[in-house]
User: What shape does this take?
Amino acid sequence: MDVAALYIAAVDRFGVALSAVKPEQWDAPTPCTEWDVRALVDHVINNHRRLAAMVSITLPENSDPVTGWHDLTPMLREIWDIPGVLDRQAPNSQLTIGKYALMMTTDTTAHTWDLARAIGVDENLDEQLVTALLPGAQQTQPMLAAAGLVGPGIDVPPHSSPQIHLLALLGRDARR
Assistant: This one.
């Protein structure tokens, strides 16, 4: 599993959904009931700012989230050009940058679906990305739910798609 490729695929797909937000949709509710569209987007952007800061990359500030995201994504790609970055210890964490980035990839993927659902655009996630993230989500779901980082898992039929399974593990019911 190539963490950098998965991360970039998640970042790119989020950018597609973000570009579809209409001006009147910023206050729309999302499946993350505590956030509207703007708060959800701010959360994702701030998470990626933290990741970049961990490897001493300072991302530009921009008050417009869409422009800001598209300004910072080329710099997020640069993270993976740093020699040995995946094995570096993440500051104030027991995780390596690679493991942290994998968590960010899962978070970004889930929030891409949240954003797409909130604004009524294509909710289909990158199938290869979802398939690659599913085993890790299955393994970490109990810990993430106990820490309040995801909602409780949702039972779905065994024949459900990998996307339905991944989102259910992360507390989202994509069947509705």
Summary: The radius of gyration is 16 Å. Residues 97-119 form the longest helix (23 residues). The chain has six helices and no strands. The mean pLDDT is 91.
